[in-house]
Protein 1
Amino acid sequence: MVKIAPITESLPAFLAAHSFSQVAVVVDEHTKAHSYPLIQSLLPAHTLIEIKSGESEKTLDTASLIWEQLTEAAFDRHGLVINLGGGVIGDMGGFCAATYKRGLNFIQIPTTLLSQVDASVGGKLGIDFHGLKNHIGVFRIPDAVLIDATFLQTLPWRELRSGYAEVIKHCLIADAQQWEVIRQKDWREQDWTELITHSVAIKENVTTQDPTEKGLRKILNFGHTLGHAIETYFLEDPAKRLLHGEAIAAGMITEAYLSYQREWLTTEEFETITSYLLATYGKAEIPAETYPSIIELTAQDKKNRGKEIRFSLLNGLGSCRFDIPVSSEEMHQALAFYSGLS
Ligand SMILES: NC(=O)c1ccc[n+]([C@@H]2O[C@H](COP(=O)([O-])OP(=O)(O)OC[C@H]3O[C@@H](n4cnc5c(N)ncnc54)[C@H](O)[C@@H]3O)[C@@H](O)[C@H]2O)c1
Ligand SMILES: [Zn+2]
């Protein structure tokens, strides 16, 4: 159940409708300072589990700490874990809850735009392992996802803009009309509650039809094959490091180019996508000498089958196809097109 409502209403209503033996809240230092004060008084006595923020903490070691604290507090299977934070806390706290004694109750209270429109819907949970993202994990739908845009008020602007890339993605793959609406406005002027509602509906619709990514769910990867490779490549360099959505913006331009080359987008459609993404995110510096490494990284993508690299590509605005093989040569052209933009 995903509920988009003031947390002061949705959380007490959820707690009143259930009976839990104990409650734990997982936070990091940022959500402890900014988000926890908004829910603290709504909760019964609880255990606060604090972890360090950041993707680099999404590890087995941190998961161990969470399991340890649940064990110390003698949690049984009737306990509730509340994950209060961005996608890192949601994925890892959810994974820990889903595996502790074969599964505790857990709810997600996502506090970043990315986690509200993407990570907290669809039931993917997990941790990174040996440098591989989300390598260990499970699918499990939380008992509830409680979303309130109020949490976004303390989010750094770059994080907010980064999450907006997933909103744009949802419009491009599934709702041409909504794309026309959002592209008329600067990202800072958007109505977040309205856009979260729209994005969640699209992601829920797709993931309910294909919960374990056998087919349709792959359309959610539009922009993510090259985008994720670009993100990974620049991870090593702190000066050039891109937030997820910033890399996905570059990924959506390069992958829209691949659609355009196949004549699945008109020149006008392609230009509106490119110009809006560039105006919103600027252009990442991707030198030509990095193309081979970036192209090589696309081979890591979980959507591939054997050696063939498969993309999810737009098929007109508001529609997307998946399992489209793309050659290294084509990827090279797409990256070169991106670098030539001004
Ligand atoms: N499960 C899925 O389907 C899915 C989908 C997309 C992404 N993800 C995962 O989500 C993670 C990224 O999520 P994210 O972008 O939310 O990153 P994040 O969880 O690292 O949060 C970003 C930063 O914002 C801080 N923060 C969170 N809420 C805040 C608030 N309200 N005010 C101030 N600061 C706040 C966090 O402490 C952190 O420093 C990745 O690990 C990714 O793999 C999962
Ligand atoms: Zn994404």
Note: Strands lie at 2-4, 23-28, 47-51, 80-85, 105-110, 124-129, 132-139, 144-147, 310-314, 320-325.
Protein 2
Amino acid sequence: MDTSRRNFLASISMLAAYSAFPLSSFSFNNSKKLRIALVGTGIRGTSFWGKRLVDAYSDILEFVGLCDINLGRLKYARAYIGVSCPIFVDFDAMLKKTKPDLLIVTTTDVTHHRFIIKGLEIGCDVLTEKPLTTDEFKAQEILTAERKSGKNLIVGFNYRWSPYNTKIKALLMNQTIGKVTSVDFHWYLNTYHGASYFRRWHGLKDKGGSLWVHKATHHFDLLNWWLDSDPSEVFAYGSLEHYGKNGPFRGDRCRTCEHKSNCDYHFDITKDQRLMDLYVANETYDGYIRDNCLFREEIDIYDKMSAQIKYANNVTVNYSLTTYSPFEGWRIAFNGTEGRIEASLDIPYNQKTRIDQAEMHAREMEQQAIEEANFEEIIVHKLWNDFDTVQVPFQKAGHGGGDKRLHDKIFKSPEVDDEYGRAAGSRDGVMSAIIGIAARKSIESGKPVKIEALTDITPTVNRK
Ligand SMILES: NC(=O)c1ccc[n+]([C@@H]2O[C@H](COP(=O)([O-])OP(=O)(O)OC[C@H]3O[C@@H](n4cnc5c(N)ncnc54)[C@H](O)[C@@H]3O)[C@@H](O)[C@H]2O)c1
């Protein structure tokens, strides 16, 4: 194996373990590129882990195989990503034939574990999209497979990489408000982004584990990383009160719906050529309807979620997730022994310029968008003092600028020491998904759920 590729793989293993990176030189040459196979050629697989990698890193990596159960989408994906590698509807055949160095998993959440485990078993490193998985049994299977394989698993937690979230981490690491004792964390999805989850597979628990897992895994990962401790117990409430069976009417799909003119949620997919090519043109293969009715009776996830999370270091967190807010944004407050930190993003009443919510959703989802820089603020209020305002440069596109930084870290500069420990491995994947899994179990049982009962990971006061 040539030096550049060996260096890359060694760096991958360091990423997964989020250990300190040596400052040794790291450079690829053109003779041997990192061989990547990808399974799941949907929107995320074709854009962020597909076209963007080809556009930005073709000198150091190459796609050797693409796989999806939908042959039409697969053919479209190969052309969209701009590669000429073979395509496969049979995942095992892809692994056998292409023998990749790195497998990227971007399928429906409930299927991640199957591909992760097979990839590890045949000796690949694996990079999976969040959430790592959707229940505790699959989480344990993944942990066991990774330990047996000696290979490494990276979880693509992009939110950690946004400068705003990193600044919060820095303030907490520096004990700016002493020891943190409690947190209020509230996330608001607007009627575009929030609603989009109810139009497709995310609306079914057995596909995405509910938004407790699919969406909130991002938020729980931030909490675990910011607080640098493991969750120990979760108590939660949740209901479905807005979408699904609560709708005043329902139709087959937005395109043909007789309620188009009086449905506030009507979504005209025909105006988006990319979605037409990716999904609508390939409906005949698998019946995946991208503009499905969000008032379908079958929807069984929650649209209102609230939890209390206790951490091993005794921090208590009040968390909520709303899916039909008039605006998209979030608020967090950390109470500490020496003061309080307040942070929030995109709350319209705090903005200096007005934001159109539909346009904002479109820009966030368009992962090739030009990054528009501005400043966002964090309030640091020490006890017995006036408050200070910390300004952080911020980008709107690509999850607050996190997407690009995550890629650069993995593919461009994995050897550079990261004082904030932003790279995430299997333990981080499990410990974030497990809070959502515990929340679901708590709602079902009406009782608090102990994290230690769910996998063989014992929560520790200082996160490992
Ligand atoms: N980190 C982020 O910010 C972020 C953003 C978007 C999506 N994601 C994650 O990316 C993943 C994909 O999401 P998406 O929005 O692209 O979904 P999508 O529905 O557009 O794509 C999923 C693809 O997986 C394919 N698929 C499903 N089951 C399969 C199987 N058994 N074998 C092979 N292919 C299969 C589908 O045909 C589809 O093409 C999800 O896990 C999601 O949570 C992460």
Note: DSSP finds 17 helices and 15 strands in the chain.
Protein 3
Amino acid sequence: MLISEIFHSLQGEGQLAGMPSVFVRTSGCNLRCNWCDTPYASWHPEGTAMEVEAIVAEIAKHPARHVVLTGGEPMIAPGIHELAFQLQERGYHITIETAATVPPRGIACDLASLSPKLAHSAPDARLDDTWRRKHAELRWQPAVVAAWIAAAPDYQLKFVVGSEADVAEIEGLLRETDCVIPPAKVLLMPEGVTVEALRAKAGWLGELCKARGYRYAPRLHIELYGNTRGT
Ligand code: SF4
């Protein structure tokens, strides 16, 4: 499968924030979010073709016992099920970071980190109508989200929030899943790739989380490293 990067870092987002982890970033995505922060794994996919054995060997060079399969969209990477199985066999904790547009189909996973994309992700005129339509059709699939929630031992729903209107949209989407989703499973992250931008939204978003019971999710990697590749 095409691998954009493999690196050892601290998990920056979600309920495992701070956990030393090896990140395996597959290259290629079925969406084209306008603000994508990993264009080298989506809009302009690049990387190295690697066999599952070579990826596992690379992971084993690091001391972490947590592995994060991310992208791009890892669930469209050929061989991803075999890679997850091999990691499970070796006792790793596996987080799968996915936009939840592809069902799990039995993939080995300890934490499904689901990040469905909101309306503000729609790509602009840089892309032709074909891609814009594909993005609109694929980005929100309540049945796929429900399948992940049913299948995974644990899950979190992570959303990037730019404005209070986004929260109303999120709540409407979650109702469409027909799942009982405890508010604590919903993590709201401020939108932004600088500490200043994150802080500017922290006040109102934090208060909103307090009022509704959602989890405010900091973006630790931005604080620690800035918006840099391989972190
Ligand atoms: S789903 Fe993720 S990787 Fe794909 S375009 Fe959107 S932000 Fe980028």
Note: The first strand starts at residue 2 and ends at 10.
